[in-house]
Amino acid sequence: MAKQDKETYDSYEKDVYDNPPAGPMGVHRGARSAASRAMPYVIVIIVALLAGLLFWGVYSGEINNLKMPWSSQESPTTSSAEKSKNSGSKSKSQSDSASGNKTDTSNTDSPADSQQNDQNADQNADQTDNTTAQQVVNTGTEVRVVNATNITGYAQSKVDVLAQAGYTSVSASNPTGNVPSQTVVWYQNETDKATAENVAQTLGISNVQQSDGLVTPIVVVLLD
Q1: pLDDT confidence bin for 56, thresholds 50/70/90
Q2: What is the spatial distance between Cα 136 and Cα 124, in angstroms, rounded to a whole number?
Q3: What does the buried/exposed string (b/e) look like for 56-74 if buried means 16 or more CB atoms within 10 Å of the residue's CB?
Q4: Of 107, 127, 126, 123, which is closest to residue 115 (Cα–Cα)?
Q5: Burial of 21 (0-12, 13-18, 19+ CB in 10 A)
Q6: Which of 84, 169, 173, 184 is 20 to 30 A distant from 59 in Cα terms?
Q7: Residue 82: its pLDDT value, please?
Q8: Residue 200: what are its φ and ψ, rounded to 5°?
């Protein structure tokens, strides 16, 4: 009795769910074409190529030469002319600057150079004064004529010759101490050199020497 009362599938009333339609149902998709299946791979390859080209352009610098359609068009001739003009202007400016700096440097004397120039000028002036003093014959210079010979009145005769030549302070004397080995005209200072040479020329003496410790500025020692 219990077996007969058990509910089975057939004991329920049939409805629409017990008779489903034929064929596929739900989220089932149909078969895709070969083109649609290959499209993702094609897109990946294109993107990879574009990325590679972009990397190469940035690394090599060629991307700067890339002209976009919306960018202004500039002819190569015009660009080259402008570059040449700018380069010429820059070179001229640098040349002017260099010339100006050079001129300023050449016209500007340092304190050391000015001091050196002043010293040179003073030395030249001193040399000029000494040369002038040496070249002037002073007939008023005191001259002493020493007779170192055995000829009496020989020194006085030379004094007379010098007096006739215009010398106003000439005296004759005898030797004291050592005498030189030959006739000589001695002078003490460089300023008396020209006068001593003139005295020697007047007396026909060729030996003229500078000597210290003289009694008078010029001394003539006669030995012959």
Answers
A1: confident
A2: 18
A3: eeeeeeeeeeeeeeeeeee
A4: 123
A5: exposed
A6: 84
A7: 61
A8: -65, -40
What span, in angstroms and rounded, lies between the C-alpha atoms of 222 and 182?
Answer: 8
Tally of CA atoms within 13 A in the half-sphere of 29 that contains its CB: 3
Do 138 and 217 form a contact (C-beta atoms < 8 A)? no
| Unique residue bearing structure tokens 């009362």 | 5
Distance CA 224, CA 139 (A): 25
Strand partners, 208: 185
pLDDT at 5 exceeding the cut of 50: yes
Contacts of 211 by beta carbon, 8 Å cutoff, 6+ apart: 186, 187, 188, 219
Q: Report d(CA 127, CA 129) in Å as an integer.
A: 5
More confident residue, 88 or 185: 185
Place of tokens 């020497």: 209
Encoded tokens for 149: 């010979």
Tell me which residue of 126, 166, 159, 124 sits closest to 145, measured CA to CA: 159
Residue 170 backbone phi and psi in degrees, to 5: -120, 135
d(CA 114, CA 117): 5
**Using the 8-state DSSP alphabet, how is residue 2 labeled?**
T
